[in-house]
Amino acid sequence: MIEWDFKKKVIAITFAVVLGVGGISFVSLYQSPQRTDEIYSAALEDFSKGDYQNAYYLFSKITLFSKLKPIAIYHRAECARMLEDDKSELKQYQLLFNNYPKHKLSIKSRYLAGQKLVETKPNLAKKYFEYIIHNAPDTDYAIASDYYLGLILKQKYQDAEIVPQSVKDDIQNHFRHYLEKAPSGKLALKVVYEWLDLSGNILKDDYLLMARTCFFFGEYEKAREILQKTDVTENWALDVKISNALKNYPRAKYLTENGLQKRSQYVSEDDIIDAIDIYLQLSESNSKAVDRLLSLASGKGRDYLLSLKCANTAQKDKAACYNNLYLKYPNGKFSADALSNLFFLKIKSGDYENARKIGMDHLNKFPDANSSPMVMFWLGKIGEKTNNYAEYTTYYENVINKFPDSYYAYRAYLKLSRISGPLITNYIDPKPVIYPYKYKGNNIIVKLVDLKDYDVVNEIAGNDDFIKSWVLFKKGDFPNSMLTAREAMEKIKNKPDKYDLRWRLIYPTVYYNDIKRFAHETGNNAPLMLALTREESYFDPLAQSIAGASGLMQIMPVTANEINNKFNLGMLIPSSLFNPYQNIKLGNYYYEFLRNNLQGHDISSVAAYNGGIGSLQRWKTSLIYNDTDEFVEQIPYPETKNYVKKVFASYWNYIRIYNGNN
User: Fold this and answer.
1) How do the domains of the chain map onto residue ranges?
2) CA distance readout (Å), 471 to 71, 209, 450, 501, 659
3) Phi-psi category of 332—alpha, beta or left, where left has phi over 0 and alpha has psi -120 to 50?
4) Which residues contact 650 (CB under 8 A, 6 or more apart)?
5) Alpha-carbon span 299 to 262, nearest angstrom
6) For residue 162, what is the enclosing H or E element?
7) Could you give the CA distance from residue 240 to residue 246 in angstroms, rounded to a whole number?
8) How far apart are CA 146 and CA 86, in angstroms?
9) Measured torsion, CA atoms of residues 619, 623, 626, 628, in degrees rounded to the nearest 10
10) DSSP letters along 58-121, please?
11) In the predicted model, what is the mean pLDDT of residues 274-279?
């Protein structure tokens, strides 16, 4: 009995100890979310300061229960890399992808581990790279894995007296896959030199791939050397670019002429267009150069040359020119543009019946072309001119619904709302750029941005360009943020409604308080000045054009001096041009000057801001037009015409996004 009591006491004590230890372990594992964030932030700060040893330690203190744990492991690997501790770096990568195989950082960790093992454990590295290609084929890591698989195989046989042809073929396949998918990728130049070092038969097409990569990297002499091993019928367009880069201009022109005459069928249309553009840049007269190439070209590129000729031909001959272009190339790259120009010329001549037929043909054949919103809007104007209420309201509404962010949606809104001037309102309610999707409170991406761990966000976001745009915005890189979001939105066929948070990334209200202050001070429309600033610099205060226009509102130093003196602004030119506050002030006073000299007409003032007040006044007297729409369509400088449309499209978008208009 005594023995049994003793056993029970031992069991009880043991159980208590286990509980105690368990309790201690639980306490040590538990960490409040606030404390986790504090440790993580401190670790990031140490890393940024270069204290990698302490950062490595702090990242290890992140609790297992936190969603930040796998990311902390990844950062520990980064710390080890900076400390040149290969063993610890590899261990952290393996810990991450073995314990968190579904995590977004798993593939990258496996790739980085493979890189570390290429020399020491090539078979294990090969296993990692093959896993990536099989499980993440659409990633950049899969493309890069092809290079390393080719490299590992090449190194395996580097000391062999005889390398089987099948092995050589496998090596070349890996290198070829890389260059086909990423000709300007980070490893592309390494691929070229490793491939050239491979003894064996290399195809002419493969040499062409290598030459193109060398061109991308500015290795023009090497590109020319490699190009000698390719087929002249397929390399001429690339040779034009290389010759131009090497300043061998006679050769570039000769190759363009000879290629268009004899070999256009062997190269891509885009490459031919690039060659033609180079030829025109090297010619004293564009019109003569176009005529010269037209006399030689018989295949690809001829429709592009015809479109250039039509754009510069006399007004009386334009209709015949565009009609000829469309009839010869009804399915070509420039057919939609040719048909839209023919459509507008019919409107200008008052032939509304045939214009309507051409416009409807255009919308049926090219419903999503860049010229489609213009055609749809002008079909509405035809309906208005012929008093067909149902027709014009339908077309105007369709422009707004199908192309809601376009210049023509803005013009259609003015028509439907019976607004006679170009301005809708002087009021918007600015809202901040925030995470572009609805999310729950535990969203890891939002958490990482709050902690300023931006680089990891890009990995976790995958291929979502709107999230990448948001990260760039948070970093203060407004131009690239807006460009990334704009390109992503252009890929969406059916645009989201105006309340969608992604629109704010494309049209942020950066610097709006200063813009509004000086717009009100000068009597300008504040949202219009915001739109103009956006189009001038994409909110880059250090922007500078080749001509010397500087700052947010891209003001020339000479103009800045004149405005500074005229309005007694007391600024130091040109240093003030790169001060956002002062640049906005100068830009608003310059716009006020233009507006006052152009009878308060904002469309004329916007055109003059880009093309100059002298040019604007010449157009006003030389062009024949019945209204604002006809004037804008006929502005002879394509840059200024597009500028006017872009500024007022931005104005429209700021109004609809931040003021509730449709």
Assistant:
1) 444-506, 512-659
2) 17, 34, 11, 14, 26
3) beta
4) 507, 530, 531, 532, 534, 535
5) 9
6) none
7) 10
8) 23
9) -30
10) HHHTS-TTSTTHHHHHHHHHHHHHHTT-HHHHHHHHHHHHHH-TTSTTHHHHHHHHHHHHTTT-
11) 98
Q: How confident is the model at residue 661 (pLDDT cuts 50, 70, 90)?
A: low
Alpha-carbon distance of 100 to 416, in angstroms, equals 57
Number of Cβ atoms within 10 Å of the Cβ of 474:
16
Reading the block at residue 293, the tokens are 């190439």
What does the alpha-carbon distance between residue 567 and residue 588 come to, in Å, rounded to a whole number? 11
Question: Distance (Å, rounded) from C-alpha 540 to C-alpha 533?
Answer: 9
CB-based contact 610:639 (threshold 8 Å) = yes
Six-digit token string for 611: 């093309």
Side chain identity, residue 519: A
Bridge partners, residue 555, by sequence: 550
Residue 550 pairs in a beta bridge with 544, 555
**Cβ atoms within 10 Å, residue 636:** 12
pLDDT tens-place string over residues 572-625:
888 899 999 999 999 999 999 999 999 999 999 999 999 999 999 999 999 999
Domain 512-659, CATH: 1.10.530.10
DSSP output for 215-282: HHTT-HHHHHHHHTTS-HHHHHHHHHHHHHHTT-HHHHHHHHHHHHHHTGGGS-HHHHHHHHHHHHHT
- Spatial contact of 251 and 282, defined as CB atoms under 8 Å apart: no
Element (H, E) at 600: none
At 440 the three-state DSSP class reads: coil
The one-letter amino acid code at 327 reads L
Kindly report the pTM of this predicted structure. Answer: 0.88
**Cα 410 versus chain centre, distance:** 24
